[in-house]
Amino acid sequence: MKMLTPWAMLAGRVLISYFFILSGLSKIGAIAGTQGYMEMMGVPGILIYPTILVEVLGGLAVLIGYQTRIAAVLLAAFCVLSGFIFHFDLADQMQMISFNKNISIAAGFLLLVAMGPGSLSIEGRKG
Would you give the DSSP letter of residue 47? Predict the structure, then answer.
């Protein structure tokens, strides 16, 4: 089983970062619409820019395994915060599914914080 651990860590990093990299890049092409949605939810639209940076740069850092724990903490906090702001609606089952998805993804990031990126990463190559 130990032989699978590095590959499982790599696959986990690829899968968990994929969502954030694509999400951040898609926001670049839809800044006005995303800003409008954020403002409708009570979030200042100007926060679209740090949101894009956190999603894309944090996702890339996790993907390649560079400063993984820092990126994972930021992305876990992002998941929980955005879950409460945009999806916490007890009356709407679809929103609660999205909220639970955010919480589950945050849990995955916290596991990365605890375990690190694994040996198949930039940090793992350094020793």
Answer: G
